[in-house]
Amino acid sequence: MIDPKIQLNDSRVGRDNIQIGRAGFVAIVNGLRVSWWWLLVIASALIAFFNRSLIMDTVRDLRNESAVTATIDAPYHMGDSVALGRLFTDEERAKLMRGSESWQAVPLLHKSGGVRVGAMDVTVVLLGGRERAVKILDVRPKVIKIAERPAATCLTLRQQGAEVEYQIKANLDRLRPEGGRARYLPKSIDLTYGERATIELTVTAEQQSYEWEIEVSYVDGSGPEPAKTTFRASDGQPFRITGAVPTYRETFSAPGQTRTGYRLEGRNKGCPA
User: Fold this and answer.
1) Which of 119, 190, 219, 255 is 20 to 30 A from 136, alpha carbon to alpha carbon?
2) What is the enclosing helix (H) or strand (E) of 145?
């Protein structure tokens, strides 16, 4: 209940008498008298508390912060092969055969434009960037370039992979979900701020060589239509995969238990399994 009160106080300034009106509103809450501006402060605090997520998300929108971010890992597994469109130089060949480990060969392969042969796994850890849940609708490979399959050099190496929560399989020669489904992701994923989801894409190719990136479709409540964002490898480069060719000018097999260096497996042969 609001109780308006008007109080008039007399003041003397010089020889004149001045009447000053002072208006105030007092609310009576459970027998307590509280001024109106304290009620306004309390109401504003309650509104701010219950709309914190909206305020925080609005600030992030104004800062152009992404609703979804990702950490990308494309590990090599035992038996993975990499093809190059050129031969190794004598220096590179000597280094490989002298005793380089698999992980030491990876920078050389990247520098030389190496392309995974046949299949590759990419692990994507998506991170929600909004207080309100961001609904991940789909995750899929997006081809950005097609080329002829490299046929100069093939090298087989090995490293370890990681456990995942969701798995997606895609063939870039026929880029559409299996079974007539509309999307690759088995189900939608809801991510609030700081929540994570780990997805592994197993991508294959046989007929061409591809450069590709990861496309994520999501809804974050900012509009009626789904939004899309793309991710590449941690170095900013697109992922690369190629189908195998029948023969390579040179093929190298991975280090084994009885030797430390790569071995020139042969010339004009298929890539060793």
Assistant:
1) 119
2) strand 134-147
Q: Which of 2-11, 78-87, 225-234 has the highest mean pLDDT?
A: 225-234
Whether 53 and 31 have beta carbons less than 8 Å apart is answered as no
Question: Residues 11-56: pLDDT tens digits?
Answer: 444 454 444 444 444 555 455 555 666 677 777 776 666 577 777 7
Tell me the pTM.
0.70
Q: Which run of H or E residues covers position 98?
A: helix 90-99
Tokens of 248: 């390579």
Rounded Cα distance, 152 and 115, in Å: 12
Judge whether residue 191 has pLDDT over 60. Answer: yes
- CA gyration radius, the chain: 32
| Cβ count within 10 A of residue 160 | 8
140, 202 in Cβ contact below 8 A?
A: no
The full 3-state SS of 18-81, as one line of letters, equals: EEEEEEEEEEEECCEEEEHHHHHHHHHHHHHHHCHHHHHHHHHHHCCCCCEEEEEECCCCCCEE
| Residue bearing the bigger pLDDT, 102 or 176 | 176
